[in-house]
Every structure is written in structure tokens, then in C-alpha cells.
Design a protein that fits this description.
Blueprint (H helix, E strand, L loop, with lengths): L9 H11 L2 H4 L13 H9 L6 H19 L2 E4 L3 H13 L11 E5 L26 H8 L3 E6 L14 E2 L3 E2 L15 H8 L5 E6 L5 H7 L2 E4 L19 E6 L2 H11 L31 E5 L1 E4 L2 E4 L4 H12 L3 E5 L9 H19 L8 H12 L7 H7 L5 H25 L4 E5 L4 H8 L3 E8 L5 E7 L5 H15 L8
Parallel strand pairs: 2-3, 2-6, 9-12, 9-13
Antiparallel strand pairs: 1-3, 4-5, 6-8, 7-8, 7-14, 10-11, 13-15, 14-15
Helix pairs in contact: 1-4, 4-5, 7-8, 11-14, 14-15
Length: 500
Amino acid sequence: MFGIAYGMGSVVRQVVQSFAGDYSAVASNPVSPGTEYLSVKELGEHMARPGGLSSADLVTYLQARIRSVDPQLNAVIELNPGALEAARELDRERASGKVRGPLHGIPILLKDTIETEGMQTSAGAFGLVGEAAGKNAPLVDYLIRQGAVILGKTNMTELAGFRGGPDGWSSRGGQTRNPHHADADVGGSSSGSAAAVAAGLAPLAVGAETNGSIIVPAARNGVVGLKPSVGLLDRNGLIPASQNQDTPGPMARSVFDAALMLNAMSGSDPQDPASVGAPQGIDYTQLLVPGALKGKRIGYPATFSKDGETLSVDNSEQFNRTLDVLREQGAVLVPVNLRLADASRYDELLLSDVKDELNSYLGKRPGLPVKSLTELIKFNDEREGADADHQPILKEINAQTLTPEQRKPLWDALIQDFRSTMDDPIKAENLDAMVSDFETYSYFGVAVAGYPGITVPSGKDEDGLPTSAYFFGTRWSEPTLLAVAHGYEQAAQADFKPAL
């Protein structure tokens, strides 16, 4: 959401280099170039062959690739020193006949807001660098139990954009770059997760979103990003912003891989009010089959706004290509007029949530240099100088005065208003899903409603940068959304590798 460039911190670069090593010196079997862009299924098939690819070789190969490529991208903020041994143990399990699931031996990166045992969890902020997290966030344990190898942590917009810095920049990690073009918008705040997956530094990454933080960087970097319904996944162990909107989510190079990730990450918190009614035990790959679009009723906005002008959808050539693909696959397309909800108090409510929830988190997290938002602001001023206003949003957050009791009825009304803008046309037209051009910012309303959305590459623009289609629906509609997105992806064949 913000954008200027800063240099990569030498400390972070040393961490990446010290654990990357020299691939040629330590690999037991050569890994073919191009392996970094294989799907999870393809990697699993290679690992299943006698004498084939091992997880340890894949981890070593990707560590070396990070050492080679990441100095230009700043997508990885820290590597897991235990990744190679974890991979070797999973190789031993496979050799003994035990395979935990489709992610067995697959390396995965985690956004730097997700607590990971033995590693920093700093949201890119030096003020949160100190004692490593004492345990994993539950979703990390879920992934490990399914056989994933935690390769490392990814850079991000510092404090999820709430410091007020540029998109993709953190004081700890530097400026994340878009692998398609170094000067292109990288999106935020899960910038490193998206850029790393796009650049073949890992097949999978976990992002986290309050509003747009998965969807925007996924679209900008040309990968798949799924923001689940708020409450579908366990949110414990994540540096919070707002429990009304926060959710982790998968980032991958295909819809199928995102669905595999969602399977592995699934598990809600029974103490979380947002998880009431959340479906459990679903195989999110089950509906990803040929012909999934046939007969699906998909709504799309009849008009969109550009430069303050309301235009017919006919004026968007790129989005019309998306509609053509859906139509050719047998989808029934229904134009709808989406009502705009009243977002006049949204910023005030969100920033007030951030103040309370971040203060609570910092107060409970041991071994950090700061224990409150006020201390964090002071820490930044002392470290970087107080002459320049280098943390405007953080100071604005700290000045908020609304109490939780004052906010709750306002949040309830706001969320219901945003939900009805989607529920009403979906119910009236009997729609299975909605689709829009990512550039119409429809992801904002979906996030406020706490509803799911998924962005899928749709091609290139005139500058050769990724474009994206955005599918969304009502609460808990992930199985249908994934099926629709997969059908579109398979027909569009619009993904492309970055030039790096």
C-alpha cells in the first residue's frame, strides 16, 4: 500500500547466506533446473520414485536458489536452521513407508507474523526482534504434522502496513521487489510470500490478511492467493491487527496447490467466536475437476470505477477476456449492480482494534525490546531518529480512543452492511460465486465482510506485468470458490514465470 525502496539489512542477509550454503557442495543428488517451478503433486511424484528426488535435496536446492536470487528480491527474511534435518527425517519416514500426506517433504515459507519455534516473529520490525517464539502457531503445527518442511520466514510490509511505510518494505528485511520487474508494485503486506512463490524460492507460502494483504501481493506477483472466511482457520500465534478481519491463508502457484495447503492448515479455534459454524473435515480438492464451471452461475459487476468515472464493464478489455473464458467453459454469467456499503467509520474502527490488539500481544510476548505500542514508537524514534515522521500510521493508531465496548455495535453494523451488499445479489440471482477484475478493489468489501476471496492470474498487461481475476462468495463458500477458480485457471492458462 506504500512504496519507496530501502536497502536490505546486513544482519538479515547474513542469516540467509549462513544457512543457504553451497548447493553443489552438499547435495547428495543433483536437482534438475526447473524443479523450483514444479507443482506439489509433481514434486510428490518425484519423491515417491525409488532413488528419486529427496526432500533434503529439494531443501538444499532451494536454499542455494535463495542465496543466489533473493539478494535482488529481499523476499526471505530468515531461513530455518532446522529445515534440512527436518527434511532428512521426512525422507527417512518415506523410506520406511510412512507418508503423512500430499505435503510430505514439501518446503513452505511463512509470513513473519506467524510464530515459529526457534525463529524470530517480528512483522519485519526491529522492535519485535528479541527472544524467538517459544512455540509454533497452531497452523504451523498443522502443516508440520502433514509433512511440510518450514523453509523460513518471508519479508513483509512492516507491521502489516500499520507502521506507514512502503508496500513490501520493512526495517528488518528491506524492500521486497516484484520478480517480474524490480520497479513494479509488489503489493502488501504479504509481499515476501508472494514474491518468493513467484520467483521459485518455494512452492508454497503462508500469508496473512486483514484487508488485501494476501490478495493484493498475490495479484501483483502473478500467483494464487486465497483469503479464507474469517474464522475458518486458527488465528492463534499470529501477530494481530483486528479479530474482525484477520486470517491466514495459502499462497501458491496453482489453485490445486492452494487447496492442498488449505486442507493441511485446516483447524479452527473453538474459543474464537468467528469460528462458530466453520466447516471441518472438508477435502478442498474434491470439486477441482474438469467441467467444474459448466452450469455455474457467476455474477459480475455491470460497471466499474476508473479515475472517478463510472464505466460499463465493456470498457475493460482484460476483464472481458476473463468473462469470455468463463462463458466458453459453460458458466452462466449474470451482470449485477453491487451496492456500496457505508465505510465512513471503517478506518477509525480498524485502527482502534489494532491499538488494543497489538498492545495486548506485545504485553504477553516475552523477550522483546518493547512491551507496548508507545514503547515501539519510542524504540523506532531512538533507532532511526525522531526528526522525520517515519511511522505516521503507528502514531495515528496510538492516538485512537474508542473502547472495545464502543466499537462492537459499530463493527457489527458495518460488517452486516458489507455482507448484505454481496448476500443480496447472490441470493436474488441464485449465484454460485462472483467474479471481478482485481483492479476494481472489490477485495476491500470482501475483507470487511469476513468473506472468502481468491485471486488467479489472468494474463499480462501492456507492460508485461501480471493481471488477475478475483473470485469471491459468501461465508464458508471456499469449496465452490476453489472449484470455480480452478476451472478458470485451467482454461485460461495465464500464468507465466517472471524474468527475474
